[in-house]
Design goal:
The complex is a heterodimer. Chain A is mainly alpha-helical. In chain A, 63% of the residues lie in helices and 4% in strands. Chain B has one domain: Orthogonal Bundle (Arp2/3 complex 21 kDa subunit ARPC3). Chain B is built from seven helices and no strands. The chains are: A mainly alpha, B mainly alpha.
């Protein structure tokens, strides 16, 4: 169950949340411009590893079903060389490749997002301030959760809600200072971005 | 002799700051209910019960449409930040589905008035959310063949919409906390 309490992870120790977000944002084009399917699958595995290092639990079965279903749906629009036929379905190389590319791209983007976004990432402006208020109350609600009884659900929910919020009141919140990015973090950031961007140019066909 | 109508600030009840604070609290409840979804078994991998919609449903009868839409924005952004899906297709689906649902529920409430219950409003929202999510999945992920799953998903959406609506209706009628909030907002 997700909470706002950040787990003590490698990326959490060495990256400020906005630098981690920036790293993810710069990895996305390097991933999308990657023309080689094998390298793209390797990037997906790398991003999955990074998401795990960021404290996220990955539901592998969900993503296997995701890639498989996208690929299968793509096979219904055949194009390119015929590989084999299964009953009425003709499996073509073009449709298979396109389906796998699409499936792995979508799953890879989810993993980049899981790896680069933490709850302590602060959005700018008034909206960011509102999100801060939402997270403040969310932590209080999670604390009150243990008092909720399924057998007298509405009654027990009422007790928790009365305790947390009365109309017209405004509770003060304090924001904790964010940990800065360490030198190790900058090195990891540099290596990740260099490797992924170099791979784009190495695997792309030359324009001349 | 002419009398000026009382200014909005002079009336009893919430001003803008109090309403925003209430919306922030309801946003937290949306996030809380979305974490409760993990406790329920899913018959299908992509199926969601839509419990996070419950606070939105309750808020529709209390505040203006723009605050309801702000609540939906806080819900999807907060969810994207907590789960780390802010930069992925999951966020796009959540954003599209949630806003379509909110607009449909607001329209149903505006048009239906007292003749429509929270169950009805919830069903409208669930159908709108599912249709938009199917459209997005057809456009961006699965292709045109994915329309074959539309009847199943809309059917499941109606089912979950009824369940969430029934609970919302019961909570709306029985909760003393919400009763206090309703009285407070009715004064504005």
């Amino acid at each position: 169950m997700p909470t706002l309490q950040p787990r003590e992870t490698f990326l959490g120790r060495h990256f400020a949340p906005h630098h981690l977000f920036l790293t993810g944002a710069l990895l996305i084009p390097a991933f999308l411009f990657q023309p080689n399917l094998v390298v793209r699958v390797a990037q997906v595995l790398l991003f999955a590893f990074l998401a795990t290092v960021n404290g996220k639990r990955i539901k592998w079965m969900y993503f296997v079903i995701m890639v498989s279903s996208i690929t299968i749906f793509n096979l219904f629009t055949p194009f390119g060389e015929i590989l084999f036929t299964v009953g009425p379905l003709t499996v073509t190389l073009g449709a298979l490749r396109s389906g796998l590319e699409k499936g792995f791209t979508i799953v890879g983007l989810v993993f980049v997002s899981l790896a680069s976004i933490r709850p302590d990432l602060r959005l700018p402006g008034r909206l960011g301030g509102m999100i801060g208020r939402v997270f403040y109350y969310f932590e209080r609600v999670i604390e009150g959760k243990k008092h909720i009884r399924p057998r007298r659900l509405i009654e027990s929910l009422d007790e928790v809600l009365f305790d947390l919020y009365q109309p017209g009141e405004r509770r003060s919140t304090t924001r904790e200072a964010l940990r800065p990015t360490s030198s190790v973090g900058y090195v990891v950031m540099g290596v990740l971005l260099s490797v992924n961007w170099i791979l784009v140019f190495v695997t792309s066909p030359l324009p001349f | 002799m002419m009398f000026d109508a009382p200014r909005r600030e002079e009336r009893a009840g919430p001003g803008k700051a109090e309403t925003l604070e209430f919306i922030a609290f309801m946003g937290a409840l949306c996030l809380f209910f979305s974490t409760l979804e993990y406790l329920f078994p899913k018959p299908f991998p992509f199926f969601r019960l839509g419990l996070a919609n419950l606070p939105v449903l309750l808020t529709i009868k209390l505040v203006r449409a723009r605050y309801v839409l702000l609540l939906v924005l806080l819900k999807v952004l907060g969810h994207g930040l907590i789960n780390g899906t802010l930069a992925s297709y999951v966020f796009l689906f959540s954003f599209g589905g949630s806003f379509a649902s909110a607009v449909a529920m607001l329209a149903a409430y505006r048009l239906g008035g007292r003749n429509i219950s929270l169950v009805g409003i919830s069903v409208f929202g669930a159908i709108a959310s599912n249709v938009v999510q199917i459209y997005l999945s057809v456009t961006f992920i699965f292709g045109l063949t994915a329309w074959v799953i539309a009847p199943l998903f809309v059917g499941l959406g109606v089912f979950s919409g009824v369940l969430v609506g029934l609970f919302a209706q019961q909570f709306y009628e029985q909760s003393r906390w919400l009763g206090g909030i309703r009285a407070y907002f009715a004064a504005s």
